[in-house]
Design a protein that fits this description.
The chain is of the alpha/beta class. It has 8 helices and 7 strands. A 7-stranded mixed sheet has the order 3-2-1-4-5-7-6, with helices on both faces. Strand 2 (93-97), helix 5 (101-114) and strand 3 form a beta-alpha-beta unit. The longest helix is centred in the N-terminal third of the chain and has 18 residues, at 20-37. The radius of gyration is 16 Å and the shape is globular. It starts with a helix and ends with a helix.
């Protein structure tokens, strides 16, 4: 089965209706990622039968939980999940943040080839990044444990914003040790077509103590 067929089938299973040109951009992204992976170690998963499910469909599974406005993808790596989300939702303003300059270079190349005008690349550590306008949501995919995620990004989120942490199995231990800077709103179990593994999205809100500080 081709990547295009995998994507079409997976989107149908996840209830996603994407225009043909959007699907084409997502596949262009995968092809570019494959080329760069031959030189740089951008992602661990490279098998053709897994890239659609593990990269695209996994990223798009969080789409219903991403609020409008400005999204920061912390520790973005190869641009996941930020780039697929930006492709599917052109009204979403996405900042890809990663301290690895080679990964940032790939992100910039992907943005150029996909013709995206709603994505910004920043090569810096999260704790050193400063902004004038804070983010509606900050998302992470295998970036850090929940407490570290919140601690290093708390200066970047709006008081009414949301932390979105993509996890595998239900993170009981991480939730028990959660930073006082955030409160748990919910844990959503995600269904990702073609991915035979547990996936969860932890949704946190800045604590009132943090907002008033």
């Amino acid at each position: 089965m081709s990547l295009a067929e995998d994507l079409t089938r997976g989107c149908k299973q996840q209830g996603l209706k994407l225009a043909a040109e959007v699907c084409e951009k997502l596949l262009t992204y995968l092809n570019l990622l494959d080329k760069w992976n031959k030189v740089y170690n951008l992602t661990a998963i490279r098998a053709e039968d897994k890239v659609v499910s593990h990269h695209l469909l996994d990223s798009l599974a969080v789409l219903p939980f991403v609020p409008k406005g400005r999204l920061l993808d912390a520790g973005s790596g190869a641009g996941l999940p930020g780039l697929p989300l930006a492709v599917v939702n052109p009204d979403l303003h996405v900042t890809l943040l990663d301290s690895n300059h080679k990964k940032s270079a790939f992100q910039r190349q992907a943005i150029a080839e996909l013709g995206l005008s709603n994505v910004l690349v920043v090569s810096a550590r999260a704790e050193n990044y400063q902004v004038k306008e804070k983010f509606s949501a900050i998302i992470s995919r295998a970036f850090a444990d929940l407490t570290t995620f919140v601690e290093v990004t708390s200066h970047l989120i709006r008081p009414e914003g949301a932390y979105l942490a993509m996890k595998g199995v239900y993170p009981n231990e991480e939730l028990e040790q959660l930073s006082s800077k955030a409160n748990l709103q919910s844990v959503q179990r995600l269904q990702v077509a073609g991915l035979d593994a547990e996936r969860h999205l932890v949704i946190l809100r800045p604590s009132r103590l943090e907002v008033s500080a």
